[in-house]
User: Which sequence fits this backbone?
């Protein structure tokens, strides 16, 4: 699912809201998650999961095309850990589809 599909689904399930308002809400949520992570903080959505930032140290890498060694700078990367409820629902879906 892409962001526009998410906005469309939320709009369809909430006909009392204008699509432009739903789009503004979704964008605000994503912007706040991004801003919080950029500040180095953690975002936890109970039952869904937690977003955090992990640091990767600088290292020496290899160009797969040429085989030459390259220097890779240190960087921060987003990390997502699923919540218990989401994990259980995903595993339940797999069990349900396997039984069919």
Assistant:
């Amino acid at each position: 699912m892409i962001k526009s599909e998410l906005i469309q689904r939320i709009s369809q399930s909430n006909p009392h809201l204008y699509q432009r308002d739903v789009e503004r809400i979704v964008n605000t949520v994503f912007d706040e998650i991004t801003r919080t992570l950029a500040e180095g903080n953690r975002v936890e959505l109970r039952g869904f999961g937690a977003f955090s930032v992990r640091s990767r140290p600088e290292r020496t890498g290899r160009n797969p095309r040429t085989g030459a060694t390259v220097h890779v700078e240190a960087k921060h990367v987003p990390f997502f850990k699923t919540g218990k409820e989401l994990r259980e629902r995903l595993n339940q879906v797999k069990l349900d589809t396997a039984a069919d």
The two ends are 24 Å apart (CA to CA). The first helix runs from residue 3 to 13. The beta strands are 43-45, 49-56, 59-62, 69-72, 75-82. The chain has a mean pLDDT of 93.
